[in-house]
Amino acid sequence: MDEQFVSIGKAAKMLGMSIDGLRKWEREGRLIRERTVANHRRYRVAD
């Protein structure tokens, strides 16, 4: 199954929050992100 991932900016927009808010959720363990080969954050849409 092919999973869809989005950038931190798109994820923030989809959730109606700031990029800094998403980073805070990461630190708190409320949100899990993946990293690309270039070390960019990507979030699974299904999550």
Largest sheet: 3 strands, antiparallel
Per DSSP, the total helix count is: 2
Give the class from helix and strand content and strand pairing: alpha+beta
- C-alpha geometry: globular
> First CA to last CA: what distance?
15 Å
Into which percent range does the helicity of residues fall?
25-40%
- Strand arrangement across the biggest beta sheet: 1-3-2
Entry keywords:
47 residues; 3-stranded antiparallel sheet; 2 helices; 38% helix; globular
Could you explain the architecture of this structure?
By secondary structure, the chain is α+β, with helices and mostly antiparallel strands. The protein has one domain (5-44). It contains two helices and three strands, in the order E-H-H-E-E. It has helices spanning 8-15, 19-28; strands spanning 5-7, 34-35, 41-44. Strands 1-3-2 form a three-stranded antiparallel sheet. The longest helix is centred in the middle third of the chain and has 10 residues, at 19-28. The mean pLDDT is 89.
Compact description:
It contains two helices and three strands, in the order βααββ. It is an alpha+beta fold. The protein has one domain (5-44).
Please give the structural blueprint.
Layout: E1 5-7, H1 8-15, H2 19-28, E2 34-35, E3 41-44
